[in-house]
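README, section 4: Worked example with a bound small molecule

Sections 1 through 3 covered apo chains. Here we extend the same pipeline to holo records, where the ligand is supplied as SMILES alongside the sequence. The molecule in this example is LGQLAAA5. Nothing else about the input changes; the structure line simply encodes the ligand pose together with the chain.
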Amino acid sequence: MPHSSGAPSGTPTLELLPAVDVRDGQAVRLVHGESGSETSYGDPLQAALSWQRSGAEWLHLVDLDAAFGTGDNRDRIAEVTGAMDIKVELSGGIRDDASLAAALATGCTRVNLGTAALETPEWVAKIIAEHGDRIAVGLDVRGRTLRGRGWTRDGGDLYETLARLDSEGCARYVVTDINKDGTLQGPNLELLRGVCAATDRPVVASGGVSSLDDLRAIATLVPEGVEGAIVGKALYARAFTLEEALEAVSP
Ligand SMILES: O=C(O)c1ccccc1N[C@@H]1O[C@H](COP(=O)(O)O)[C@@H](O)[C@H]1O
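The generated complex, written as structure tokens:
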């Protein structure tokens, strides 16, 4: 049977997660995750609905104010999640029982924890045991060093933390190269390979995607354990459409 112009036939499909990051009620993109580097793209609900209409099966939704500790967009996040018919991965400021309960109550498919995995490991081990694959951990790295609190503080060694989380049963990792994030400079394939070699859990790639070729390159890592890729700036900058991206990674 003929196959599409995307990834080689027989390769499992790379999941694509278009990102909607919310700051001060607006959909924004940052460069290197730095506060103050925002470009605004308007209403987050409209952005999320447009990715859904374009065929997304996942939405990566981030409360940036909660991640930075500059307030939160909880109502907006709940509104967007509630309006989605697709799966939602929710990130930003999920650090204790109250914020976790609020996040899970939105009906999101899973949450993604950053700072908590670095600062309150006992709590994270407990909620992994309670919620299984509804919990992912975001490994946001610069070099080999993890960063928390809006990526402003060092949080330990990537591979030591990964080994600890693996032993606690963490179901999945969202791996972001901070140096690449929001830069349209291409993904850090070496980092992704390194993480895949160190764990048998699925990995979602994040940071740097600029072109369909970048997505095809990430898709070659599916057999090594990369399950998905978050796409942000490239979609907002119209480097390609989501329809083109989905086609590019479908076997
Ligand atoms: O996504 C970003 O651009 C981003 C930038 C700066 C900080 C955080 C960012 N995103 C997400 O937030 C979580 C971390 O939140 P927390 O530490 O759990 O409060 C991180 O994993 C990213 O998914």
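What to look for in the output: Residues 1-5 have pLDDT under 50 and may be disordered. The domain at 15-249 is CATH 3.20.20.70 (TIM Barrel).

Section 5 describes how to batch many such records.
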